[in-house]
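Progress report, Aim 2. The chain analyzed during this reporting quarter is listed below.
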Amino acid sequence: MVFVLLVATVLVTTFGVAVAERVRVRATSERWRPAHLFITEGDKVVWKNPDDRRHNVVAYGGGWQFNEMLQPGEQARRVFEVRAGGDPYAYRCTLHSAIVDGRCEGMCGLVHVFTS
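Predicted structure tokens for the chain:
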């Protein structure tokens, strides 16, 4: 557990990763900002598209379902729970990312959910 907290702290300070009770994720060019989220179970993530192009938020891997198209100015929401094994939720914009050698490249993100 100490290791996980240390890694989360390093990510936050180094990469500008969000740690919050409610998180907004913005589409910017070809990336989600922030791309890595650390939230508490029951928190809501809101993806917003302030871009002039459409984007989508699509779950991939790990057996969860989410697929929302975001036209310019639109947003999508989801409340998250801790997953068995503590695995993160992976998502991507299928219009602006690709899976290469089993890894997402481009507009990809992860939601890490912890108990309060």
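Strands lie at 18-19, 22-28, 31-33, 36-40, 44-48, 55-59, 67-70, 75-79, 89-100, 103-114. The chain has one domain: 2-107. These observations will guide the mutagenesis work planned for the next reporting period.
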